[in-house]
Every structure is written in structure tokens, then in C-alpha cells.
Amino acid sequence: MLQDLVAAAVAAGVAGFVYLVSAARVVKQYERGVVFRLGRLAGDVRPPGFTTVVPFVDRLHKVNMQIVTMPVPGQEGITRDNVTVRVDAVVYFKVVDAANALVQVEDYRFAVSQMAQTSLRSIIGKSDLDDLLSDREKLNQGLELMIDSPAVGWGVQIDRVEIKDVSLPDTMKRSMARQAEADRERRARIINADAELQASKKLAEAAQQMEDTPSALQLRLLQTIVAVAAEKNSTLVLPFPVELLRFLERAQDHPADR
Questions:
Q1: Residue 115 and residue 121: Cα distance in Å, rounded?
Q2: What is the pLDDT of residues 123-132, one digit of tens each?
């Protein structure tokens, strides 16, 4: 009799241990557990830590709550100004409602990926080439809103969307290079012409000042002579006033007057 009781107790203990092992589950810190009991959502979402389920009745699905980095494959499209481009992007999102992420959509990762590709093609068709190249922050915000609107009902929150690269045809790259070169040349000519204008104004002011003060012209002449004389391989040509020549001629004609 005693042996039967001991055997029954051991069997009950083994059965309890097996039940506990079958019912025990561990949810990690970055996960949330969603329990389906006979196919229906049962109770609240299980927090991280140790939890139990009813064996053979409950099924526990773990949902990752970390931010997911998903690259969006390059999408080809025609911009509003009729330029063919290829644009790729990256989407950062996370699950904020584990239950809806499993119940409302079959595969939330695939759904976000397809929505991102569709939205990216739509953004390409609504934008100009200059916007894609220079105003990406505004396009990123618009792309984020387009993806986030349906994702809210899936229990998914779009954290950020970034356009990574815009690929252009080789002919368009060459055309843009020529345009940039022509624009730089235009700016160089304008700057040069403006410098000539400013220099001419200063020279006119200097000429007016020398006309009012003849000695300034002689001082400037001496400065020029000093600057030229510093070069040993230079030939110095001195201007000789005609009045001085005439004065010397008169001095020769009338030597007694001296």
C-alpha cells in the first residue's frame, strides 16, 4: 500500500514537472508575448520575463520590439520634369502594438517593405530632379508620412525614412557637368568684369588727383622707377619731358645769357 502511494506521488511529481516544463516560457527584454488560446487572442500582451501558458491549448508568439532597419530596393521612375532616375532608401521602424502586428496584418515586415517601395515611386513622380538632389529632407518627411499612415493600423510606427542615393543616366550626368562648368565660367566673367570696373574707377580717381597735384605724378614716376630697377634683367626707359629739351636748346643758342 505504501509503495503504491509512493509510486503515485512520484508519478504526480513527474507529471507536474513535465507540465511545468511544457507551460514555462521566457520572454526576452526586447520582446513581447502574444498568447492565442484555441486560435483566439487571450489576455494582455505578456511582458518580458518568465511566463506560463496552457500546454496544447495556448500558443505564445514573441514579437520583436526593436527598431528594424529595412533597405528599400532601388526604384526607377520618371520625375515631374521628365528625367529617368533610380532611387533607393532605408526605412527605420518598430512595433508598438504586438497584438495588432500579428492580428491586423499577415506579415508586417513584408507589408512595410511593399508600402515603402510604392511610396518611393510615388515620391519620384511628384518631385523634380533638383528636389531629389538638394531637398531630400523635405522628401524624407513626405515619404515617412505616406508610409506611416497605413502602418499605424498595423501596430507599427515609422521612426525615420532616408533617401540614400539617386542614380542618374550618364547622359544626364554629362549635361549637368557642362551646365555647372558654364555657370562657373559665367560667375568668373562677372567677377572679372566687376574687378575691372572697380579698378577703372580707382584709376580715374587717381588720375584726377594727379591732375590736381602735378607733383604726385612725379612721385609716382619715381616709385615706378624704383620698382623696375629692382629687376636686374630689366631695361629701364625714362620718359624725358619735351619742355626740358627745349630749355636745353635755348641754353645752347644763347650761351651768354647763362
A1: 10
A2: 888 888 888 8
